Amino acid sequence: xxxxxxxxxxxxxxxxxxxxxxxxxxxxxxxxxxxxxxxxxxxxxxxxxxxxxxxxxxxxxxxxxxxxxxxxxxxxxxxxxxxxxxxxxxxxxxxxxxxxxxxxxxxxxxxxxxxxxxxxxxxxxxxxxxxxxxxxxxxxxxxxxxxxxxxxxxxxxxxxxxxxxxxxxxxxxxxxxxxxxxxxxxxxxxxxxxxxxxxxxxxxxxxxxxxxxxxxxxxxxxxxxxxxxxxxxxxxxxxxxxxxxxxxxxxxxxxxxxxxxxxxxxxxxxxxxxxxxxxxxxxxxxxxxxxxxxxxxxxxxxxxxxxxxxxxxxxxxxxxxxxxxxxxxxxxxxxxxxxxxxxxxxxxxxxxxxxxxxxxxxxxxxxxxxxxxxxxxxxxxxxxxxxxxxxxxxxxxxxxxxxxxxxxxxxxxxxxxxxxxxxxxxxxxxxxxxxxx
Length: 437
What we know:
InterPro entries: CAT-like_dom_sf, O-acyltransferase_WSD1_C, O-acyltransferase_WSD1_N. By secondary structure, the protein is an alpha+beta fold.
């Protein structure tokens, strides 16, 4: 039984990050009365019970753990009574009334051992007249697209069409098929392996994981997408540009950050699912590491720079580069993946992680209660990092910031993001964005 099922290289890499729980999630907000937890468990058993991925338990490696891989133990079924929990019956108890605080606690702590590493939480009080479902999982089990597909499968309604990750970035294999001449240059581009700039370390306080979410004005998103001539900016380009400006506003002059004048690197994910594989569960994903235009003062110039970066790096080329690196480490053994994870967790490697995606076309509901909003929950990264996730659910935009820096930075970053978006709609002279502290 201890032999189990081997993890994929990406799954093993996501188990190798030390000091963080690697818990990701998504929260859906509904209007109306919440369902009974017994009814929700019955729905989960009916709609998710036949999914083998949800019946896996993560087995930790035996000693010497550094040299041995994790394994999956496949169960015949999962127990809905353990996996589907009422927030008021769990360890958060009455604290569930603080919905944002609850979300922060969920991503800042690991899921329990000995059970499939995912949970569906029913939050009866998520605001006036609202309830929420919060699906969390260990990142080694599920990626963000898997969470979306699972939650969509649980709900009523929808068009049956999947969403799209990263604001228009299509699957790498689909891009290769559509543009074989763009599948890669004659000589593979070098991997950007060098260290970069880091975010300023907290002064006088220990870094602490935090989460904050905010509503994002749809008109501001539309204005941002029209800010450049020609084709409208993608949601991913808007997110990267606005996140860069928000970091400047929160952390001060970029030329004073550790590692300057080296680039500040950020990452964004690329969904590797080809057409016909949209419902695949697991980690069918890679990442692209790009230098963010943190030294640009003009918000529109930052947006133009992000468009150029995405055009130059790929998703095809950038995602392939990361995949090659992970596969090469996996061929050496688990120890190499753990060294790779340690290197990737250093403050100057890529302290900013961004993800943008559209929810599948609705409307969606649960027992007649309409879904109003989707809140993405990126994982907590090592100290000195920030993650920003932006969702578009039927034209309702939501940003979530998860930071591992100074206490209070998650809220500052989320608020600054909204101001950066508004700057795209102002004349360039008035939109110059400098740090506020």
